[in-house]
Recover the amino acids of this structure.
């Protein structure tokens, strides 16, 4: 695996993203990678707060929508 080629590909894909919610989630993912075990509680609480914020904004799937999405997994 050429790590630099992988990083370049990731950069190109990120440059295409226009969804602020996705960017925020990616940011938190990258931040969580660098968190120590001491920070894991804070990261967990942040994840919960972000999820609650998404729900308040109406950014969620209903149970039926989630089931339909799950049916499509692995069928590409």
């Amino acid at each position: 695996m050429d790590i630099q080629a992988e990083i370049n590909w990731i950069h190109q894909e990120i440059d295409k993203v226009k969804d602020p919610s996705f960017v925020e989630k990616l940011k938190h993912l990258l931040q969580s990678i660098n968190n120590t075990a001491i920070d894991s509680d804070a990261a967990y609480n942040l994840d919960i707060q972000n999820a609650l914020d998404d729900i308040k904004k109406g950014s969620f799937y209903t149970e039926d929508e989630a089931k339909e999405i799950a049916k499509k997994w692995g069928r590409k």
About this structure: The mean pLDDT is 85. The helical segments are 3-16, 20-33, 40-57, 63-72.
